[in-house]
Design brief:
Elements lengths: L1 H17 L5 H7 L7 H30 L4 H12 L3 H12 L3 H19 L3 H24 L21 H20 L2 H24 L5 H22 L11
């Protein structure tokens, strides 16, 4: 009886040994990086130019409509938010707005650069982060310089930077930075923890956008445009430089 049972035990043990695992380290190892070529660089440049052209056209259109008084809702939202101001909300939105200011973005990106290197054991994703945030910055600066939409005619709670109102650079930067980090956590971290952290990071752009509008720095259409600029550019960067999500199996 014991001899008959032993093959079964050995068979079960063998099956257990062969059961595939799906740890975060396994997912990291399975990722295949694309070979960097001038073709990939050309695709990214094409994406950047298309985002720039479309953003400038939309920005000029919004600027003309706003000047002609054809966007009453845009200004009405800003005036309503200005009427709702309190000391508590002022303080909360100051923190929310600072989540994507220049100093914070540089600090978070620098920490994330080395954290990704240590976690994943390579610099590739760290460099892609630089492309995501740096490309967004260049696109934003070009669009803002060309469109030059005036900021809302309400009291502003922050000193106005030299750039114009369209698009919201804070919102675009928060999407390009925190959106990228959310994707990294979703792809590579353990399923539950990665999902929770990714969701928390994905909410930051909404906090930033609401804070910027509340503080009188942007119209609603400015923050929507900023989110789209950052989001579309992030999508292009991930599509060109990182494997698609389908290439990484997740626990079900």
């Amino acid at each position: 009886m014991s001899e008959a049972a032993s093959p079964i035990r050995r068979h079960s043990s063998t099956n257990a040994d062969q059961t595939p695992t799906n740890t975060s380290r396994d997912r990291v190892k399975r990722v295949v990086r694309p070979k960097l070529t001038w073709t990939l660089a050309g695709w990214l440049l094409l994406c950047a130019v298309m985002i720039l052209v479309v953003s400038v056209l939309v920005g000029f259109g919004l600027k003309q409509l706003s000047t002609a008084g054809a966007l009453p809702g845009d200004l009405a939202v800003e005036r309503w938010l200005a009427d709702q101001r309190t000391g508590t909300i002022d303080g909360m939105t100051k923190v929310g707005s600072s989540l994507a200011n220049t100093q914070t973005a540089i600090l978070v990106a620098a920490v994330a650069f080395f954290a990704l290197r240590i976690w994943l054991g390579r610099f590739y994703e760290s460099c892609v982060l630089v492309v995501s945030l740096g490309g967004e910055l260049l696109i934003f600066l070009a669009v803002a310089a060309l469109v030059q939409r005036p900021r809302p005619p309400v009291e502003r709670l922050d000193a106005a930077p030299p750039t114009s109102s369209f698009p919201s650079g804070h919102t675009a930067a928060s999407v390009a930075l925190f959106g990228f980090l959310a994707v990294m956590l979703w792809r590579y971290a353990d399923r539950r923890l990665g999902a929770v952290l990714a969701l928390a990071l994905a909410l930051i752009p909404f906090v930033v956008a609401a804070s910027r509008m509340y503080r009188g720095m942007h119209y609603p259409t400015d923050v929507i445009a900023g989110a789209l600029v950052g989001g579309v550019w992030l999508f292009c960067v991930l599509a060109v430089l990182l494997p698609p999500p389908s290439a990484i199996r997740r626990d079900v």
